[in-house]
Amino acid sequence: MNKGRKKIYLAPYYHENHWMLSIIDIIDHNQGYWCDPIGNSEIPMFKTLLNTSIRVYGYEGGTRKSSKVPQWMKLDCARQPGINECGYYIMRYMLEIVTSPHSMRSIDEIQAL
Questions:
Q1: N or C: which end of the chain has fewer CB within 10 A?
Q2: Greatest CA span in the chain, whole angstroms?
């Protein structure tokens, strides 16, 4: 990513002893993704927090385009085999995103980790 405005934002989320990851593209596509290595968690409270933050960011940044909240989509990510590996999987997702030339349109390929 360049040093100007970022194309995506990664937001790890720790809730009730479990790590999940949100991937947000508010500049170009207003798309939000979330990965859950267990696959059965919902994040409505976290989505609300992120949506509010995005609205404030757009307001303070002076751009209406980024103030739109993203459309959220759950990615079909690789599943952790046990109950303690969620942090490792989230770190792997983030490493794959920042070291590979993914576009937001192909970000769902992370499931092939």
A1: N
A2: 45
Phi, psi angle pair for 24, to nearest 5°: -120, 125
Q: Which residues pair with 25 in a beta bridge?
A: 31
What whole-number distance in Å separates Cα of residue 22 and Cα of residue 94?
A: 10
Query: Per residue of the chain (113 residues), what is the pLDDT tens digit?
Result: 344 556 788 889 888 888 999 888 766 557 788 888 988 766 778 888 888 877 777 655 555 555 677 788 888 888 899 989 999 999 999 998 888 765 555 555 554 55
Predicted TM-score of the model (pTM)? 0.70
Q: What is the DSSP letter of 55?
A: H
